[in-house]
UniProtKB/TrEMBL annotation:
GO terms for molecular function: cysteine synthase activity. Its cofactor is pyridoxal 5'-phosphate. Its EC number is 2.5.1.47. Belongs to the cysteine synthase/cystathionine beta-synthase family. It catalyses: O-acetyl-L-serine + hydrogen sulfide = L-cysteine + acetate. Keywords: Amino-acid biosynthesis, Cysteine biosynthesis, Pyridoxal phosphate, Transferase. Residues 316-358 are annotated as: Disordered. PANTHER family: CYSTATHIONINE BETA-SYNTHASE. GO terms for biological process: cysteine biosynthetic process from serine. This is cysteine synthase. It holds the Pfam family PALP. The lineage of its organism: Bacteria, Pseudomonadati, Pseudomonadota, Alphaproteobacteria, Hyphomicrobiales. It comes from the Bacteria. It comes from Methylobacterium pseudosasicola.
Length: 358
């Protein structure tokens, strides 16, 4: 994303952000027999581990250029975790302090990463988010409590979608040689899908942009506040415009697919077991939607790019993972006729191949 110095290596953290790879999924969701190609854009290979590294750098870069961010100032925002992690990493690398407000249900792994970079966290009870317009009220509180800090405003800062217009979209266009037909993304702050979608549609007006949102059973309400949710997958239909993130451009979006939290978690698990990729539940939701699109006959021969925003390592403590924690003892291997076997090893003297090698 950023030009290196005259050395043969980068000399600042931001130079490592971007140019993440696309991986064609060959086994996931019965890929062997599907007439549609799914490419996963692996955003957790950014230096702080998610696509929000791009957002963080876009915001900091613009604020520094405009003179809005002073040396040693504190960065502050409301975040579901990944933007906070990206901002905390860059703040540490560039001499700023950072403080972030998060839902109390944010995964301990994300909170721990923010602390690892030296930033502070304030946890807010999830019940405070249930009423319409609650996010705006919480943001007002964040700003009032931190009058001297630089509020990064990831939901409304135009530097957020701009960085995706300048980097994420062009990378997809370049790496697919213009063959991308459908972009699938979640909606957190709206920056990724809006900026990336705008760029790709500027190059290929017929391209379709699809977002995934939580299904009705995965949206908490005052009557059912303890519903299992997916961080970074937000409702965009049946929501009044003033309550949507300012960076979300609904005009870019062609379709919305709903996904239950359980489906997102199961899809993320299937990705790990079919492709060897560990992805967070929001990426599971994105790939659930991508698989639905790939199964449609009208999409035969098309190429879908799905945004894999972060790694499953950030959610190992969350519901839906516990069942995989019990270790499964593997049978001891035994060599027979030059091949390994899973049959039990016979008792008796050890064969000669147990001795020193060579």
């Amino acid at each position: 994303m950023t030009a290196w110095s005259d050395n043969a290596w980068p000399d600042h953290l931001a130079a490592l952000i971007g140019n993440t790879p696309l991986l064609e999924l060959k086994r996931f969701g019965g890929r062997q027999t599907s007439p549609c190609r799914i490419l996963a854009k692996i955003e957790y290979l950014n230096p702080a581990g998610s696509i929000k590294d791009r957002t963080a750098w876009g915001i900091i870069r613009a604020a520094e250029a405009d003179g809005h961010l002073r040396p040693g100032q504190t960065l502050v925002d409301l975040t579901s975790g990944n933007t906070g992690i990206g901002l905390a990493a860059l703040a540490a690398a560039r001499g700023y302090r950072a403080k972030f407000y998060l839902r109390a249900s944010t995964s301990p792994e994300k909170i721990g990463l923010i602390h690892q970079y030296g930033a502070r966290t304030i946890l807010i009870d999830d019940a405070e988010f249930l009423q319409p317009g609650a996010v705006d009220l919480i943001i007002d509180r964040v700003r009032q409590e931190n009058p001297e800090a630089f509020y990064t405003n990831q939901r409304g800062n135009p530097a957020n979608p701009r960085i995706h217009f300048e980097t994420t979209g062009p990378e997809i266009w370049r790496d697919t040689a213009g063959a991308v037909d459908i972009l699938v993304s979640a909606v957190g702050t709206g920056g990724t899908v809006s900026g990336t979608g705008r760029y790709l549609k500027s190059q290929k007006p017929g391209l379709k942009v699809v977002v995934v949102e939580p299904a009705a059973g995965s949206v908490p309400t005052p009557d059912h506040p303890d519903v299992d949710t997916v961080e970074g997958v937000h409702k965009v239909t049946e929501v009044e415009a003033q309550h949507l993130p300012g960076n979300y451009d609904s005009g870019v979006v062609d379709a919305v697919i709903a996904c239950e939290t359980a489906q997102a978690r199961l899809t993320a698990r299937a990705l790990a077991r079919d492709e060897g990729l560990t992805a967070g539940p929001s990426s599971g939701a994105v790939l659930f939607a991508a698989a639905q699109l790939a199964a449609r006959q009208e999409n035969a021969g098309r190429t879908i790019v799905a945004i894999v925003a972060d790694s499953g390592e950030r959610y190992l403590s969350q519901p839906g993972v516990e069942g995989d924690r019990t270790p499964h003892p593997a049978p001891a291997p035994q060599r027979r006729s030059g091949a390994w076997s899973s049959q039990p090893i016979r008792t008796g003297p050890k064969p000669s191949y147990y001795g020193p090698l060579g």
